[in-house]
Amino acid sequence: MRLWKHVCSLFKSFHIRKIQTIISLSTTTITVFVVILVSYMLFDRFSKVSEENTYLNLNQIIEQVNANLELYVSGMEDVFEVAEAKVNAGGKRSDQTLEEQLGTILSTREDLVSIALFSMDGQLVRNVPSIPMRQNTKLTEQAWLHGCDLRHQFSVF
C-alpha cells in the first residue's frame, strides 16, 4: 500500500502544464518512436537479407551435392565399363588372371569395397575379395538384376 501511495504522490507532483515538462515529454516520445521505427526497419531488412542468404547457401549446397553425385556416378560407370570390358574380352582366361584384374580395378577406387560377377540367373561367379555372400541376399528378387544387359553371359556389379 505504501508503494501505491508513493507512486501517486510522484504523479501529483508532476505538473504537465510546465513548458519544461511538455518539451521533455515531446522529445522523449519522438525519440522513443524513432528508435522503435528504426529498430523495426533494421530488423525487417536484416531478416530479409538473412533469409535470402539462407536460400542462396541452400541452393549452393544442393548444386555441390548434385555435382558430387554426378561425378561419383560417372566414376562408377567408368569402373563398371572397365570391369565389363575385362570380363567380356575374348578368349578363356584363368580365374587367377580375372581375379587379379578385378583386384586392380577395385584398388583404383577407395570407396569400393568389393566387385562381384553374377550369372544372369543370380549365381555368384567371382567376387573380389573372396568373401561369402549373406544368406538373405535373395539376389534373384532384386530389380537391378532383372534390368541387366542380357547380351552378356555375366553381369558386373
Give the arrangement of secondary structure elements.
Blueprint: H1 2-13, H2 19-88, H3 95-107, E1 115-119, E2 124-128, H4 143-146, E3 154-156
Antiparallel strand pairs: 1-2, 1-3
How many structural domains are formed by the residues? 1
Radius of gyration: 38 Å
Q: What share of the residues lie within helices?
A: 55-70%
The stretches of 5 or more residues where confidence is low (pLDDT under 50) are none
Strand content: 5-15%
- H and E order: HHHEEHE
User: Which geometry do the CA atoms define?
Assistant: rod-shaped
Distance between the termini: 86 Å
Mean pLDDT: 79
Keywords: Membrane, Transmembrane, Transmembrane helix
Transmembrane segments: 21-43
Write a concise synopsis of the structure shown:
The protein is mainly alpha-helical and 157 residues long.
Q: How does this model look, in words?
A:
Keywords: Membrane, Transmembrane, Transmembrane helix. This protein has 157 residues and is mainly alpha-helical. The protein has one domain. The protein is 63% helix and 8% strand. It contains four helices and three strands; from the N terminus they run H-H-H-E-E-H-E. Strands 2-1-3 form a three-stranded antiparallel beta sheet, covered by helices on one side. A hairpin with a 4-residue loop joins strand 1 and strand 2. Helix 2 packs antiparallel against helix 3. The longest helix has 70 residues. The chain is rod-shaped and about 110 Å long. The mean pLDDT is 79.
